[in-house]
Structure formats: structure tokens, C-alpha cells
Amino acid sequence: MNKESFIENFRMAFGDYELPIGFWYSDEPTVEPKSTEGCFIKYLKLAREGKTFSLNEKSIDCPGGKTYLGFTNPSPMGAEYIANKELYKQSPKLVTDWIEEINTPDKSGKYINFASLNEIEDFNALEGLIFFATPDVLSGLVSWVQFDTNEPDAISVPFGSGCSTIITRTIVENRKNGRRTFLGMFDPSARPSIESNILTLAIPMSRFNELYYTIEKTCLSGTKDWTAVKERITNGGL
After folding, report:
1. Per-residue pLDDT reduced to its tens digit, 140-173
2. Which of 147, 113, 145, 121 is nearest to 131 (CA)?
3. What is the extent of the structural domain holding 164?
4. What are the angstrom distances between the C-alpha of 142 and each of 96, 148, 193?
5. pTM above 0.85?
6. How many domains is the chain built from?
């Protein structure tokens, strides 16, 4: 797969809209980690703007973020907090069951790196791509993802924190060579860290390896209906 060819196809489909960001683990940081404050989702803006950045256990302020990126084990207090303080689940038991189902990979001692596709050499080391999408852009991404499949969970909307839905789920799916993609950023705690008109679609590389070859064949290649939507994207949603 050629990165520049995909960028060319992405521009064909979405004009000058922002490219996705990629993320990957490494034994050494791509850049020296800086400490985050609160939800680290807001720091993804750095990658969206073209700055590569790295995180590890020590640099992440949020205990949930440490857990969902695989740096620490889940805390029993976390389940209590999610259920009884944030009121996101009916009981701590439901939270515990959810965490066990995710089966967060162990990445202790590692670094996770984020960068815009423009700043990444190739796709080889990536776990997945995260697209930050307005409703119009999301309609195109969903059309692309569903083009070659009738699987009902081709696009999943799982419960979870912002980071667990766009990063953890993507990593786990990629490691099992899965085909699901993940619509995310519905977590009210993370919403203030992102624009009000943006959701995310996270695609594991195991699925992107297939989608890479289909984008030119979809409606995004220039059908009448998509051309009208693309024009609105190009005009900033107007």
C-alpha cells in the first residue's frame, strides 16, 4: 500500500479536508513525551495539526487513559466511579464486565505515538487510523466502509470512554485481524475535548488493508450525489 496514493484518493473524495491521524506503539518515543492534564483526547489536536507526539504511562494524567492504552491494570475504584459518579452504567458489575470484554492489551513499558498521515512514512507500524469527521464527511466514510460488506457490525458503536472507543477497540480488533470499524466520541466526559460538530471513525489496519483498494470504486469517486456533498464539505458545510 502506498501512502501517497491513498492521500490522493482521499483528496479526490473529500477535497482539502483534514487527513486522518495514525497511531502506533514503540519501545522508544518518536518525540519526548510531555505530561497531559485531564483527558488526553484534547491533545490529539496536535496530531491533527501536523505535530507528532508520544505518550507513556507517566505522561498521562487520567487513570482511565493509562488503563485503556494498556499501560496499567484496571482499578476496582474505576468501576465504582464510572457507575456511581459519572452514571454511565447501572452498576459497577456492568463496568467490570465491559472492561473484561475489551481485554485491553498489555503495553506497559511502551510508548504510543500519534501523527497525521502526512507525517507518517508508511502504514507498516500503524495499529489504525482515526478520522475526525463532520456529518457530511462521516457519510462518505460510512459509505466507503460498507461498500464491500453486508456485515451488520461493520461499523460498531461500542460503549466506552473516548480513548477506549477510538484506540483500545481499534488495537484489539487489529490484533485479531478483525474487520470492524468504530464510530466514537460519544462519551460526554470527552466531548468537551473535541469540536461540537465532530465524531470519529477509527479503522484498524487489518480492515484498512482491504478498504485501501476499494475507495476509488465507491460513490466517493464522483457520483452526482456525492459531488453535491463534497461541494458542501469544500465550502465548510454551507
Report:
1. 999 999 999 999 999 999 999 999 999 999 999 9
2. 145
3. 3-234
4. 31, 11, 23
5. yes
6. 1
